[in-house]
Automatic annotation (TrEMBL):
<dbReference type="InterPro" id="IPR036509">
    <property type="entry name" value="Met_Sox_Rdtase_MsrA_sf"/>
</dbReference>
<comment type="function">
    <text>Has an important function as a repair enzyme for proteins that have been inactivated by oxidation. Catalyzes the reversible oxidation-reduction of methionine sulfoxide in proteins to methionine.</text>
</comment>
<dbReference type="GO" id="GO:0008113">
    <property type="term" value="F:peptide-methionine (S)-S-oxide reductase activity"/>
</dbReference>
<dbReference type="InterPro" id="IPR002569">
    <property type="entry name" value="Met_Sox_Rdtase_MsrA_dom"/>
</dbReference>
<feature type="domain" description="Peptide methionine sulphoxide reductase MsrA">
    <location>
        <begin position="2"/>
        <end position="141"/>
    </location>
</feature>
<dbReference type="Pfam" id="PF01625">
    <property type="entry name" value="PMSR"/>
</dbReference>
<protein>
    <recommendedName>
        <fullName>Peptide methionine sulfoxide reductase MsrA</fullName>
        <ecNumber>1.8.4.11</ecNumber>
    </recommendedName>
</protein>
<keyword id="KW-0560">Oxidoreductase</keyword>
<dbReference type="GO" id="GO:0033744">
    <property type="term" value="F:L-methionine:thioredoxin-disulfide S-oxidoreductase activity"/>
</dbReference>
<comment type="similarity">
    <text>Belongs to the MsrA Met sulfoxide reductase family.</text>
</comment>
Amino acid sequence: MVKPFDQYDGIESVVSGYTGGHVPNPTYKEVCTNTTGHYEAVQITYDPTVFPYEKILQIFWQQIDPTDAGGQFGDRGDSYKTAIFYHDDEQKEIAEQSKRNLEESGKFKASIATEIIQASEFYPAEEYHQDYYKKNATHYELYHVGSGRKGFIDKHWSDHK
């Protein structure tokens, strides 16, 4: 989820990490056991005067299968479920409206499974996870295609930018 946001003016940083769980400072190995309650997530720091929250949500929706309640593409389990983590009432309201708009658009036959959850402690992932798409470009692209993500995005969001 770093690459789609990393290219825009107004996005100051995108940090890979974990949130929503009950174990302080978890490791990737711990999170993958699906016993810590964490989601794999990104924390985006942005300038809302240059890049509004609504645009972040638009890009997010266009990177996922919002109807998949069991993970994403080749990544299965609770830590891979999609969610939007809001930091205040305004973000919550905007996220909920965005989800309603997607649901009502008829773009997907199934219900939108992505949850909207109040943000909790965010723990940055290990260094080797940061900017993974740059550090492991070939593997990243092979997985992007092989997992079905690219095909799904092309099919459902052929107009995405």
